[in-house]
Amino acid sequence: MEIIKMDQLKGTERWEGITVKKILKNEDTQVMNLVLQPGDKVPEHSVPVNVFFYIVEGKGTLRIGDEKKVVEAKDIIPCTPNTKMSLQADQGEKFVVLNIKTPSL
């Protein structure tokens, strides 16, 4: 059995300071852990696969298509392929998110 300790994984910096940790990647799934500090933002982009977000910690704003909502820990938000999306840690707290893509890119 493999156990992945998310807090012990080293991340890389992306999108002006956001820490990104690769949790899992195979042909079916890609799981990334995004750690945003207050004020950080993942710019608008889209991908050609299904995505869902699981909010691990904190609150922030998620934009999918034309909808923009404040989401919080334990929320799960699906996003269809080729839909523009962005994240922002605009609620004054750390915002930790799992980004799951199926199939993997």
TrEMBL record:
InterPro entries: Bacilysin_H2HPP_isomerase (IPR052535), Cupin_2 (IPR013096), RmlC-like_jellyroll (IPR014710), RmlC_Cupin_sf (IPR011051). Pfam families: Cupin_2. It comes from the Bacteria. Residues 35-100 form the Cupin type-2 domain. This is Cupin type-2 domain-containing protein. It comes from Halobacteroides halobius (strain ATCC 35273 / DSM 5150 / MD-1).
